[in-house]
Amino acid sequence: MATSPSVRIIRTVKFSAAHRYASAKLSEEENQRVFGACYRPHGHGHNYRLDVGVEGQVDPVTGMVMNLADLDRVLKREVVARFDHSFLNYDIEHFAETVPTCENLALYFARVLPPHIEVATQGRMASVRVWESDDLFAEVEL
Amino acid sequence: MATSPSVRIIRTVKFSAAHRYASAKLSEEENQRVFGACYRPHGHGHNYRLDVGVEGQVDPVTGMVMNLADLDRVLKREVVARFDHSFLNYDIEHFAETVPTCENLALYFARVLPPHIEVATQGRMASVRVWESDDLFAEVEL
Amino acid sequence: MATSPSVRIIRTVKFSAAHRYASAKLSEEENQRVFGACYRPHGHGHNYRLDVGVEGQVDPVTGMVMNLADLDRVLKREVVARFDHSFLNYDIEHFAETVPTCENLALYFARVLPPHIEVATQGRMASVRVWESDDLFAEVEL
Amino acid sequence: MATSPSVRIIRTVKFSAAHRYASAKLSEEENQRVFGACYRPHGHGHNYRLDVGVEGQVDPVTGMVMNLADLDRVLKREVVARFDHSFLNYDIEHFAETVPTCENLALYFARVLPPHIEVATQGRMASVRVWESDDLFAEVEL
Amino acid sequence: MATSPSVRIIRTVKFSAAHRYASAKLSEEENQRVFGACYRPHGHGHNYRLDVGVEGQVDPVTGMVMNLADLDRVLKREVVARFDHSFLNYDIEHFAETVPTCENLALYFARVLPPHIEVATQGRMASVRVWESDDLFAEVEL
Amino acid sequence: MATSPSVRIIRTVKFSAAHRYASAKLSEEENQRVFGACYRPHGHGHNYRLDVGVEGQVDPVTGMVMNLADLDRVLKREVVARFDHSFLNYDIEHFAETVPTCENLALYFARVLPPHIEVATQGRMASVRVWESDDLFAEVEL
Prior knowledge:
6 copies of one chain form a homohexamer.
Chain A: E1 7-19, H1 28-35, E2 44-56, H2 68-83, E3 86-87, H3 88-91, H4 94-97, H5 102-118, E4 124-133, E5 136-141
């Protein structure tokens, strides 16, 4: 019997956070030139949206690639609880050194989330999208 | 002359339906554990959104991969007329036995729509996305 | 000193539910004629959105009309816990007899929510909007 | 001849900003209890949306209540240039003392914008809505 | 027994149209100055959205202010069939002379739609909103 | 050391334009049959949305695939300044001969934008999406 195509489910969570763009490797003039308004000393903020894709065969009994309740538990614990109402540069250790751009947030979630998701599913984490606003997002295919 | 890249058009239709998650292969306790609130006896509902992708070369005279009026006719007949205002488990035969998750809806449309679309176009149906809500969708690449 | 204008805050919650339109006071033919596809025997469903407005003076210390954590607690308990994943006609006693239209949902929330909200605030509940889909909502000004 | 009804136009601008909720009039325990996660020391952020309503008779020659180019100039200068990429508590003097809730932002714009708008129009500024996220906004009718 | 509050339902339809802003009562320089890019000779276009509000008592048997099927029939015939895929200045007689701004569209619908709606309902048409884009709309309360 | 996965950023711009569908290679009857309402003589319009994807390695100092200020400058000059408030068939030379469908707009941007973007970045332009409305878009992967 032919196998079914694999299916990807994409789940969205939201968090509100502040960030500031500045690099210790750049002079003040370079920081100003590269980051513009994002270099303002006190930071500014966004309502972020994270889309996590999990891909695999659909279980013939449950009709699911991964139980949503399990996925939601991971995303609540690893994303919302840590990132919502945070200042990325100060509250998330990784972003003390790494500029918290949309791209770096996507790379970060693409690296730290798969182990949490893959113990709970026969599928695999396949994609990350981080939306900073309605007109900008970064995506990584794993 | 170099050929043009192929183009994919994505068309969206919406339908409102109810569903209930329960599997005859699971005990009542297992159904409760796996499906949680989705196992409630009377079912609940969603405003679904279906995105169908059709891919091919653009016709140099019409500027189209597929005539939208033809695509809309197929989607109206095969999706909206059958699924809108339905209770998936009772009104759509396939979902009498198959749990009507987002994933299974995507697999179903990925199997039943291509013959209807491909007789009407030189392109091919290339993707399905089924949105259950703003924060969950399932996708299949064909 | 002139008083500040009063401010209305509007908070949104979502729930997914099924419903069926049928009136015991109408014959089968009348039900069919009045309710059309909404009279299908098994019901269908929606992702509903409820906007609750609370109006009052802004507290000069907290900057709030009403503490959002209190409002969220009421809406979670009285709306989401009861209505999400429900079949309105069967799971919510009021809609056993009353047709669960958008209008009747708005009237229901306009009647049952104010006492819960007003004990927790110096403001008053001022408006209800119930969205059944992106292109239909009902509103009541209290 | 009967006069035309007056018309209200509503124009939207967006800005990204960080804020922190804390009141010098409250103890640390009270701040924690009243503001919860919003009291975190480094602040967090939002993509804000501001809807400004201007109401009046439609000019029979131009078809406008107020020239949009004039309105956009005011909103760009008084809102976007000052608030986008800011940390409200530190960069906007008014919010050094006043908690930058949605309600207080709405009151602020309702007080400071009308003189800028009314010199440029025969209409009057009639309403303010400040959206902090998709599920919360504050509104003031002037 | 106390009467119920009245309820307003708001129904949305969409249409795509082109328009050009120019007034025969203005010189070319004045047209250029007042209308800017909207004065370009060939016109430009929008996806418009029209929200029509109908207000009244909810019928105790049907749970409706106005039968949606009736309202949809009026909006399809008087709005979509006439305005969708049109060039407002050339295809809609009223806008041959009147500048087709958002404001004038709202006034037009506020004048021409009520007779069609009020013969079909015990309610009354109460409001019009015309959205030209996500960041601009005009509203009239009747 | 293992390299990082590449990241794609997607940036959105909007423009309002009119268009008309008609082909000089088709008879009037054929034009009518193929294009339907889109063949109306005066044209109609849309609020378009263009999503441009740029893909590459993230710069370890700036945290960026491409400086957004550079990308925004290109999109403002090559897209918004030329296309906003335009009538595609008359104001954009390419569409004098080519039917301005969603598909042809996507192919056009996929051909003309990469040289402007690639001089300003170590990344490459990787994708184009052109949205004509909420329920239709065309996409090209480069």
